[in-house]
Amino acid sequence: MRKFLIRARNTPVDAVALRKGIGGDVHVEYLVQVVQQALLISKGHRADTIITLVLEHSADYSRAISIDGSCLGSLAGWHETALVTLLADILSAGRGLAKEESLVYEEGLTVSATSFERLLPDTPRLFILDRKGSDIRKVADLDDALFVMTDHIPMPKNALKHLSRLGAQTLSLGPTMLHTSQCISVIHNELDRRA
């Protein structure tokens, strides 16, 4: 299973603000591109992928939206407007969640009131992207790993220290800094070529 955990520090948990954030400083369209690159393939979606978006701009708790390709049926649409609407609807459904509570929105779609740090497993199969890290093409085993990324706001230093304590390895996709959605495509391509 391919797993991606994306920290979106400036993305609002409020559904109305999320909808209004398209084209603005929030960069909601960026999250849509991340979801599209993580799950879409020609004439279908990836059943071997789970993506979790952690939206942190909240008055109470962060919300984690997980999309599990292995049990995801057909969505109404994979275009930008439909995906923003879906994310907003999931956030609306999870509005009243207590801390560490989860809700299955529909099969394959879950929302949780939890923090980014709580979603990090205590396992050495954890990778964070860094241009100075090990070249992805030289890392032997990437199966069942969790790839941790952030949006356009860099990962805080305390989060990087926490990831390091958990045994996270740094992984480079090349010398050029890419958008998160592009990084996901490169990782998928590398894993597809190994299959």
Protein described:
The chain is α/β, with parallel strands linked by helices and 195 residues long. 29% of the residues lie in helices and 30% in strands. The protein has five helices and ten strands; from the N terminus they run E-H-H-E-E-E-E-H-E-E-E-E-H-E-H. The strands form two sheets. An eight-stranded mixed β-sheet has the order 6-7-5-4-1-9-8-10. A hairpin with a 5-residue loop joins strand 4 and strand 5. Helix 2 runs parallel beside helix 5. 34% of the residues are buried.
Structure characteristics:
two-stranded antiparallel ribbon; 30% strand; 5 helices; 195 residues; 10 strands; alpha/beta; eight-stranded mixed sheet
Task: Please give the structural blueprint.
Layout (H helix, E strand, L loop, with lengths): L1 E11 L2 H6 L7 H12 E2 L2 E2 L3 E9 L5 E6 L11 H14 L8 E5 L2 E5 L12 E10 L10 E5 L6 H9 L3 E4 L7 H15 L1
Parallel strand pairs: 1-4, 1-9, 8-9, 8-10
Antiparallel strand pairs: 2-3, 4-5, 5-7, 6-7
Helix pairs in contact: 2-5
End-to-end Cα distance, whole Å, is 12 Å
Summed over residues and divided by their number, the pLDDT gives a mean of 90
**Strand arrangement across the biggest beta sheet:** 6-7-5-4-1-9-8-10
Number of helices: 5
State the major sheet: 8 strands, mixed
Unreliable sequence segments = none
How many strand segments? 10
Q: Rg, please?
A: 16 Å
Q: What order do the helices and strands follow?
A: EHHEEEEHEEEEHEH
Structural class: alpha/beta
Coarse morphology: globular
Strand content range = 25-35%
Helical content stands at: 25-40%
